[in-house]
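Protocol step 4 of 6: structure prediction from sequence.
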Amino acid sequence: MSHTLQLVLSIALTLFGLGFLIWVSVRTLQRSGDPVKLIFKWVITIPIVLGCLFVSRLLGPFGPFVIVFMAVILSIMWTPHIAETLFSPLTSLFDGGHEEPDKKPFYSMAVAKRKRGKPVEAIMAVREQLAKFPNDYEGIILLAGIQAEDMNDLPGAEITLNNFCNSPQAPDRQVVAAWTQLADWYLKKTVDMDATRATLQKIVERFPGTEFALRAEQRLAHLGGSQKILLEQHDRQATAVPTGVNNVGLLDSSAFLQPQEIEPGKLAAAYVKHLEQHPHDAEVREKLATIYAKDFKRLDLATMELAQLINEPRHSPKQIAGWLNKLANFQVQLGADVETVTATLQKIVDLYPDLPVGEMARRRVELVKKEIEGRKQISEVKLGTYEQNIGLKYGRPGKPQ
């Protein structure tokens, strides 16, 4: 190897080692908890190394002893830093290393002030955190809650939630939760049905064709009943109690005292009228299907109503499987054949083969024939004729008096 090549290689290795040393030094300084102390060690180390090298040359044969002494001193100074650099990749797996924890807002002070009955100071504490984290859902809901529940400032709470919901960065589920909470406040605190409907309608318009919209539509369908209950709680009036029947224990029959049930035909007509206005009300449609099956023995009409629920993809697997099982029950009760019931249950297996509802349906399919035969046997059983007033006789049956 030529002298020039050796010189170039030596310079390259020297530069590489110097660069590596600088990189390690800077990285160590960045990770150090006490950079001033680390710089002080560097300042001491450089003169010691240079001095020991100079002295070792002057002493000749005794030079190595000086170098060993210098190495001991430097090892005491730098071993902790070297060990940290070598083992930090392993220890970082357990303690997170030198990564800074994620910054997040703290609302404990605001919650404490709210509990002490200081809503204004609580709002200030929340806004202080929201200034640093403007789109934090927890802080937005807390601020709106203090405004609505502690300050009775429902319009202010609405502005707070709408500003958050109208932000493009707001996640869909948080938007739905915020507007649902606003609807609850309007319904419970002011019984303002128009504002409640308008708020829920925002969900339907913002997320058309989704599960969020379906839940909002179903809730819109039940607002009339909620309004009646809440108005009764807010404006209770004295209720006249009719005089009870005297000597009720001596009457031949007390059947007339029992509350009269609504005629199934009238109830079904009311459900049909309700569904014309609110076609997504799953609860009412299921009740209508039950009336068709149990009171009118119309399996075709019950199947039609349940099919509308089953074919709605926005319902959960648990709900759809429940309606398919209910349809299978109606089919068994009203005399459908084995193939029809099996096909209904097989839909659950085909739709949800990996879910528990699919496994339960698979087991039921294997027992459909026995289930139908058992139903037929029950329907053919005739009650025997028993002696009347047996409970009013003295003694035991068969024992002479």
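Step 5 (inspection) to follow. DSSP finds 18 helices and no strands in the chain.
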